[in-house]
Amino acid sequence: MEKLEKSLTKSGLVLVEKQNITPNVIKALELIDQLKKEKINKNVPTILRHVFSEFAGVKNSKTYNGFVDGNLVYLTAVLQKKDS
């Protein structure tokens, strides 16, 4: 995060607001988990299902678990151009 904020500062943008929305992302992933699994199982060849499941963030994937254990964070931010 520190590296990202330094990059934004160098860009000439000012960070107006930042919010961690990871809990919302986890909830959304949980709400659509079963549908994603069904779609993947129906439409994706068996050999590729694991990759699609990871990308989709289904429960117990590395992506999903990363959000749950805090290793991955999903942020939203409002940036503004500096007045010159």
Number of strands: 2
CA-based shape:
elongated
Assembly type of the chains comes to single chain
Low-confidence runs = none
Structural class label: alpha+beta
Instruction: Write down the Rg.
Output: 17 Å
Give the strand order, joined by hyphens, for the main sheet: 1-2
Average pLDDT confidence is: 93
Q: What fraction, in percent, of the residue positions are helical?
A: 55-70%
Q: How far apart lie the N and C ends?
A: 26 Å
Describe, in plain words, how this protein is organized in 3D.
This protein is an alpha+beta fold and 84 residues long. The protein has one domain. It has five helices and two strands. The chain has a two-stranded antiparallel sheet with strand order 1-2. The mean pLDDT is 93.
Summarize the model shown.
This protein has helices at 2-11, 22-31, 33-43, 49-56, 62-69; strands at residues 13-20, 75-81. By secondary structure, the protein is an alpha+beta fold.
Write out key terms for the chains shown:
84 residues, alpha+beta, two-stranded antiparallel ribbon, 2 strands, 18% strand
